[in-house]
Amino acid sequence: MDVDYQRNASSRMFESDFFEFFSKVHPAVPFVFYIPIITGALVYGLVEQITTAPMAAAFLALGWLTWDVLEYGIHRAFFHWEGSGPFTRWLHDIVHGYHHKFPDDAKRLVMPLGASIPMASLIGGLLWLLHRPAATLPLFCGIVASYLFYDFTHWSTHFRTPLTAWGRAIRSHHMAHHFADPTRNFGISHRWIDWVVGSLKRR
Length: 203
Prior knowledge:
By secondary structure, this protein is mostly helical. Helices cover 65% and strands 0% of the residues. The chain is built from 8 helices and no strands. It is globular, with a radius of gyration of 18 Å. 22% of the residues are buried.
C-alpha cells in the first residue's frame, strides 16, 4: 500500500445513497449498542450462576487478550490485503483503503454496526457451539469490551490530543503506520504484538 493521503478531507465511498449513509457512524454508536449487551449478559450469567466471579474475571481477561490478537491479525492480514484483481482492490478500498486515503474523516473512525454485528454474531455463535457457558459467556464479553477499547483508542488517536504518555506513544505508533510505513505497526490499541512479531516501527 502506498502512503497516499489527504488531510482534513473526506469523500464518498459508495454511489448508492443507502450504503453511503450506513458507512458513516457517530463514534458513540458502538458503545451505546454493545455496553448494555455485554453488561446485561455478564450480570445475568453471575446472577443465574451460569458462571462464577473467578471464572468471569479469568475469562474476561482472556477475552481481552483474544481481541488484541484478532485486532492485529484482521488489520494485517485482511485490511491490508489488496489482492490482484479489480474486485479485491475495490474491496480493499472499502474495507480499509479509504481510511488511509482520508485518515481525518471523523465519521469513519469506528466500525459501523453493519460490520461489527456480523463479526460479533460469528464469534458468539462459535463460542456457543462449545457448550461451556461458564467460560464462553465472560470470554465473549471480554472480547467485545476489548473491541470497544480498540474503537475508542482508534477514534481518540485520530480525533483528540493525547493527555498521557501512553496516549502519546499509541498515537505516535499509529501515525507511523499511516504516514511513514503502512507495512508496520498494525496494533491499534496496543503495541506489544508488533514488538513480539517484529513489525514494530518507532516514529
